[in-house]
Structure formats: C-alpha cells, structure tokens
Design brief:
Structural class: alpha+beta
Radius of gyration: 28 Å
Helix content: 25-40%
Order of helices and strands: HEEEEEEH
Distance between the termini: 74 Å
Number of helices: 2
C-alpha cells in the first residue's frame, strides 16, 4: 500500500514539476496589422489618409475615419474608413471609401495640366 502511495506521489510531483515547462513552451500570441484607406507618394512626398497606425502586439482594435478630403484640388475622396483588430488567434484589417476622384481645374493651361497629369500618373495610389 505504501508503495502505491509512493508511485502516486512521484507521478503527482512529476506532473507539477513539468506543467510550468509545458505552459511556457506554448508561448504568447502576438498580433500585427494596419489599415490605410488611401496612400499616395510621389517625388519623396507621402500622404496617408484614414491610417489606423500599427496594431499593438497585444491586440485590441483601432479605427479611424475621414469625412472628406481634398488634396490641393488635384484629388478628393469622401467617407474614408479604416479598422484593424486582433484577438484570439487572428487579426483583421480593412479600409473603404465611398468616392475617389482625380481632377484638374478647367482654367489651368493645357501644358500645366499635362505636367500635372504626368505627375499624378507617377503617384502610387494604393487603394
């Protein structure tokens, strides 16, 4: 009977001794994510609109919105929204906008309009 109690005590001690090692080996979950509704860059100038920024590694939720934006009269957009979140075992990011328009004023000289159009064509519009 004492031998049976000794075996149970040894098994219990082994379980208790190794259980922290097992839980430490599992590690912690980290998250990443970022959402940007409109991003443009040209000639070393960058523009990011409705940018949530980076999601903390601990997770959570970030969101931002911009009602309307006009960039120097060359482009405009309405209702830009971005969200990013992380929980459980996954993270999600999404962005949207209702309207985007590249435009030029009618009274701009054709030559200047052509230069601006070429400049706008060189922009990377990550939408």
């Amino acid at each position: 009977m004492n031998e049976k109690k000794a075996i149970i005590a040894i098994c219990l001690a082994a379980v208790l001794a190794f259980s922290p090692a097992v839980s430490l080996a599992q590690g912690t979950t980290t998250f990443s994510g970022e959402a940007v509704a409109l991003k443009a860059s040209a000639a070393g100038i960058s523009l990011a609109l409705s940018d949530t920024g980076a999601l903390p590694s601990s997770g959570g939720s970030l969101s931002t919105s911009v009602a309307s934006v006009n960039v120097l009269g060359l482009a405009s957009a309405d209702v830009l929204k971005s969200t990013t979140s992380g929980s459980g075992t996954s993270s999600q990011s999404q962005s949207s906008f209702e309207r985007f328009e590249r435009k030029f004023e009618r009274n701009i000289d054709c030559f200047i309009a052509q230069i601006l159009d070429e400049f706008m064509g060189q922009l990377r519009w990550d939408v």
